[in-house]
Amino acid sequence: MARISGVDIPPNKRIEVSLCYIYGIGPALSRRILAQTRIDPAKKAKDLTEEEITRLREAIDKGYRVEGDLRKEIASNIARLTEIGSYRGMRHRRRLPVRGQRTRTNARTRRGPRQTVAGRGRRRGTAKK
């Protein structure tokens, strides 16, 4: 099992897919890295030679910000937004959607499970208007 950027990549998957297990590397970046290092994307991760794994490690470490460094940078960006009191920072602080999505309905992932509010709904014993 190859270990790249502190992540054990799955051995039985294509290397193109396995690289996506590293935080900060998606499908497009994975293909770009493989083209840069001249490794066949269809090759399984377990079939890589030590020399190919070394080339991958060096390419990722030199050229791209991944895993811990990327997580730190994103966290510091969010902290900066909340500190300066920007609209996006306030949305992060209140744990609401940041990019303009509606919140009257939906947004359950961000807001969490529904919370019941007293006085909502139709009252018992009152007729419809």
Architecture blueprint of SSEs:
Blueprint: E1 3-4, E2 7-8, H1 15-18, H2 27-37, H3 50-63, H4 67-84, H5 87-93, H6 108-111
Antiparallel strand pairs: 1-2
Summed up:
With 129 residues, the protein is mostly helical.
Would you write up a description of this structure?
- It contains six helices and two strands, in the order E-E-H-H-H-H-H-H.
- The chain is mainly α and about 130 residues long.
- The chain has two domains: about 5-65, Helicase, Ruva Protein, domain 3; about 70-110, Ribosomal protein S13/S18, C-terminal domain (30s ribosomal protein s13, domain 2).
- Strand 1 (about 5) and strand 2 form a beta hairpin.
- The longest helix has 18 residues, at about 65-85.
- The chain starts with a strand and ends in an 18-residue tail after the last helix.
Output the helix-strand order: EEHHHHHH
Number of strands: 2
- Report strand %: under 5%
What is the count of distinct domains? Answer: 2
The fold-level CATH name of the largest domain is Helicase, Ruva Protein, domain 3
State the end-to-end CA separation: 69 Å
